[in-house]
């Protein structure tokens, strides 16, 4: 059969929201019947059925929506297995893994309904095959049925295939789906440049029609293909609270645009540029914006191996941020980088709000001077420090770390969790423990007068 017929058959062969939608009356049958929509989710989606029937945990619509987005972005993994999840939760302390998931913006509410879940999954699967159908009536009917029920939309950039109007349909979607608060743009097929002008027009219409986007997620987007830059898109989101990228490539203009949004938008709470390619000079543009981002609570820069000195101005500017709580630098080039290590010291010394600092697999951290550990010892707000590694700590590092933890306790700090997976052997662990036996003289050396301490 022709591909159009295959696509139509695929859409018609499954339970869909259109079967219960009256386009003339603009009414959805069984809209208030949650039991019905839960049953339909279980019938339509096998992966939901498996977890409802076999999981030890009670999964809610919010959990399924998050898993769907996760699998579309990262692909399914063994860690998603319900039995494994139950075992980890039952027999392991999940504290550190839960801390690393920390976020300030949540795409889905705990009150998300089964109808909202079905609308999201059904519409996103429809969009996967729409370019092969070239039937805009289906698209408009779908949007009318779901537009007030989808808060987070996964928008896949894909080849236009049978669409005579090319990538125009992206403008149509963005113009009409004004209820969306969180948008994931995924460009695994490298179509961002081809669709760019329609995206810009669509986002302009989205804003003019009363849309209020709270989070933008760029997945595998090469922003240099946007002929007139990302700012033309970002300026349409005055209510933006979170920006996230993954496996994306940011050009200089995009970093300037992000910096400007951070500076101008007083609501930005979260910036996640993990697994993203950009360079030191570009990072400076973002750092300039962070200086004025007074509402920022979360910064994630994991797996950014293209950065070297670009991290340090970001950290230094955030040291003065009144609300920053969580920073994750895992798998970044920190190790012996004196500039970054000095910025970390200043962050702990100056910040009055930091709660979680994650620096897993950042090398031996030999660049951290005694000043860093002194600042750690007197910091009042830090709750957890994560420094997992694949190389053993030196005896000197272990000793300073132990003393800093003891000092933090003595000075009534908040530090109560330390993750050091892979860092200790028997000797360095012994050195760490011994160093926790501190005296008043030790305290005087670090926080008082060394002349007095020597008497």
UniProtKB/TrEMBL annotation:
Keywords: Repeat
Name of the protein: Uncharacterized protein
Entry annotated with the keyword Membrane: no
Entry-linked InterPro entries: LRR-containing_regulator, LRR_dom_sf
């Amino acid at each position: 059969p022709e591909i159009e017929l295959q696509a139509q058959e695929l859409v018609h062969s499954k339970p869909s929201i259109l079967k219960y939608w009256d386009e003339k009356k603009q009414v959805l049958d069984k809209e208030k019947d949650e039991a019905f929509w839960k049953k339909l989710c279980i019938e339509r989606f096998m992966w939901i059925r498996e977890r409802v029937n076999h999981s030890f945990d009670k999964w809610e619509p919010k959990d399924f929506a998050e898993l769907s987005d996760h699998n579309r972005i990262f692909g399914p993994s063994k860690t998603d297995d319900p039995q494994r999840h139950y075992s980890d939760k039952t027999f392991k302390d999940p504290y550190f893994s839960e801390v690393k998931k920390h976020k300030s913006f949540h795409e889905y509410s705990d009150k998300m309904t089964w109808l909202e879940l079905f609308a999201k999954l059904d519409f996103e699967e429809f969009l996967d095959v729409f370019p092969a159908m070239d039937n805009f009536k289906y698209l408009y009917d779908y949007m009318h049925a779901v537009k007030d029920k989808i808060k987070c939309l996964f928008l896949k950039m894909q080849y236009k295939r049978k669409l005579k109007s090319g990538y125009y349909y992206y403008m149509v979607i963005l113009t009409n789906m004004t209820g969306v608060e969180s948008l994931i743009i995924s460009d695994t097929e490298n179509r961002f440049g081809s669709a760019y002008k329609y995206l810009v027009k669509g986002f302009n219409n989205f804003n003019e029609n009363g849309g209020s986007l709270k989070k933008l997620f760029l997945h595998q987007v090469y922003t240099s293909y946007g002929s007139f830059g990302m700012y033309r898109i970002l300026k349409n989101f005055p209510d933006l609270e979170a920006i996230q990228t993954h496996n994306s490539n940011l050009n200089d203009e995009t970093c300037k645009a992000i910096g400007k949004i951070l500076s101008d938008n007083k609501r930005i709470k979260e910036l996640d540029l993990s697994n993203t390619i950009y360079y030191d000079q570009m990072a400076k543009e973002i750092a300039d914006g962070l200086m004025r981002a007074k509402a920022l609570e979360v910064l994630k820069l994991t797996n950014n191996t293209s950065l070297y000195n670009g991290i340090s101005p970001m950290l230094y500017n955030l040291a003065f941020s009144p609300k920053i709580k969580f920073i994750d630098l895992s798998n970044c080039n920190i190790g012996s980088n004196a500039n970054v290590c000095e910025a970390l010291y200043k962050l702990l010394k100056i910040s009055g709000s930091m709660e979680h600092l994650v620096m897993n697999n950042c090398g031996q951290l030999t660049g951290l001077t005694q000043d860093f550990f002194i600042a750690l010892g007197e910091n009042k707000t830090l709750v957890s420090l994560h420094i997992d590694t694949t190389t053993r700590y030196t005896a000197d590092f272990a000793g300073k770390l132990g003393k800093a933890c003891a000092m933090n306790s003595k000075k009534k700090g908040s530090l109560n969790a330390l993750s050091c997976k892979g860092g200790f052997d028997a000797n360095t662990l012994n050195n760490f423990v011994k160093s926790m036996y501190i005296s008043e003289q030790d305290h005087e050396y670090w926080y008082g007068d060394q002349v007095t301490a020597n008497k």
